[in-house]
Specification:
Chain B: Involved in formation of the rod shape of the cell. May also contribute to regulation of formation of penicillin-binding proteins. The structure holds 2 protein chains of 2 kinds. By secondary structure, chain A is of the alpha+beta class. Chain A has helices spanning 2-17, 21-28, 33-52, 56-93, and strands at 103-112, 120-123, 136-138, 143-150, 155-159, 166-171, 177-185, 188-195, 205-208, 220-228, 235-242, 251-256. Chain A is 31% helix and 30% strand. Chain B has helices at 3-16, 31-42, 49-63, 69-88, 93-117, 128-151. Classes of the chains: A alpha+beta, B mainly alpha. Chains A and B meet through helix 1, helix 2, helix 3 and strand 1 of A and helix 1, helix 3, helix 4 and helix 5 of B.
Chain lengths: 267, 155
């Protein structure tokens, strides 16, 4: 028994202090996929029923609603297209680099990490779909997290709210740069080392800055919730709420960056 | 090893990854620990500490947690069950459930220590909620497993 305890402790410390286990892990993790697949079956079935057993009236109604929505979005998009090209022209005038359009891939949530202290999910796209470690994951409302390991047909996504995660951002209103880190709470993020003199108020939108090269720039990350300024402390305590619906989104977007080579994709 | 023992462990693995909302995860019973404790107590000649360790390692792979995380806890819990099964088996079910609460509590505590080493914040007594729910499940598990055991003649 003592031997087994010792082996477990050695395994744990190897896993924590070195990277030796991670290549092995990406192979072994394939074994976990069937379990998540099985537990996903009931919701899949419900989804199937929702999709295929619908009355004609509801379909027509839904179709009408969607078309209306599409029209509105398209009108907005027309404006966007003009703005986009104008932006490029202005940037060219200023001799700065062109903005790149990111390509996206839609993935579906397969499972959630069962450990209550870990904010990780498993999605149903992997090496086969050219998913790579470090890839940004979004939903319709903002940045969710990044891919931390990939297997053949699944990938693990670490959320921005996990307390092992931090992301460089800037304030959309004035461009001040800062870093947002997770605290292990799904509804709040902490801004680290905010000087007391920094211009930040509740309601400010924090946008990914792309510094550090991991996340694409310009995606909304969080909205400032509270700014607590204490003159006795060197830094203010600022909390923000993620704009992405981390608890609800079932479909997520994986962002591919142009010319980006995977940071250690396993075959 | 009887195929039903393996099947019960597989079911426990599946139950332990059933998706729930993020906030409900604290309330999930420790199914794998429950099954391991059951087989260590009621089939102790055939379900040793090494088996418990293997279950723990598999559990870690499936839960995507660091290797050795639940293996450590399950080894300790199985060892204590092996030391105490002769006495505990003669107790009433609710008294056994209290013992199971303590065992799962130890399992959770070890897991929490490991989490502490990995800089994951530890909320002090909230992790015992799962241990409590696991203990409530114990009488149910014993009653069903006992009939399964007799029906299929598992040694």
């Amino acid at each position: 028994m003592l031997v087994l305890v010792l082996i477990s402790l050695i395994l744990l410390s190897i896993g924590h202090y070195t990277q030796w286990l991670s290549p092995i892990r990406s192979y072994i993790n394939v074994f976990s996929t069937p379990f998540y697949w099985v537990t996903n079956l009931p919701s899949k079935t419900v989804e199937w029923f929702d999709e295929y057993i619908v009355s004609r009236e509801t379909l027509i109604k839904k179709n009408r609603q969607l078309r209306k929505k599409l029209l509105i979005q398209q009108t907005k998009l027309q404006k966007m297209a003009a703005l986009y090209s104008e932006n490029i022209r202005l940037r060219e005038l200023m001799n700065s680099s062109k903005l790149l359009q990111d390509e996206v891939l839609i993935a579906e949530l397969m499972g959630i990490s069962p450990d209550p202290k870990v904010h990780k999910v498993i999605i149903n796209k992997g090496v086969l779909d050219k998913v790579y470690v470090g890839q940004a994951v979004l939903d319709a409302f903002g940045l969710m997290g990044q891919v931390v390991s990939v297997t053949y047909n699944t990938a693990e996504v670490l959320f921005i709210t996990d307390n092992a995660h931090a992301i460089p951002v800037y304030i959309n209103r004035n461009g001040v740069r800062t870093v947002v880190e997770g605290v292990g709470d799904l509804y709040s993020l902490r801004l680290s080392y905010v000087p007391n003199t920094m211009d930040i108020v509740a309601g400010d939108l924090l946008v990914s800055s792309g510094l550090g090269g991991r996340f694409p720039a310009g995606y909304p990350v969080a909205r400032v919730d509270s700014v607590n300024y204490d003159p006795g402390q060197p830094f203010s305590t600022v909390y923000a709420k993620p704009t992405a619906q981390l608890n609800r989104s079932r479909h997520v977007l994986l962002v591919f960056r142009e010319g980006h080579v995977g940071l250690g994709t396993t075959q | 090893m009887h195929w039903l023992v393996i099947a019960s462990i597989m079911i426990a693995f599946v139950l332990s990854v059933v998706p729930t909302s993020f906030d409900m995860r604290l309330w999930r019973p420790e199914f794998v620990a429950l099954v391991v404790i059951y087989w260590s107590m009621y089939s102790s000649e055939h379900f040793g500490v090494f088996m418990a360790w293997c279950c723990g390692l598999l559990h870690d792979i499936i839960e995507l947690s660091p290797m050795g995380y639940s293996a450590l806890g399950l080894v300790v819990v199985a060892y204590i069950s092996h030391l105490s099964y002769q006495r505990i088996r003669s107790y009433a079910l609710w008294q056994q459930a209290v013992w199971v609460f303590i065992l799962v509590g130890i399992y959770q505590l070890l897991g929490n220590w490991v989490n502490g080493l990995m800089d994951k914040e530890v909320e002090s007594p909230t992790f015992l909620i799962a241990a409590m729910i696991t203990a409530f499940l114990w009488p149910l598990v014993v009653v069903t497993m006992r009939s399964v055991k007799i029906r299929f003649r598992i040694p």
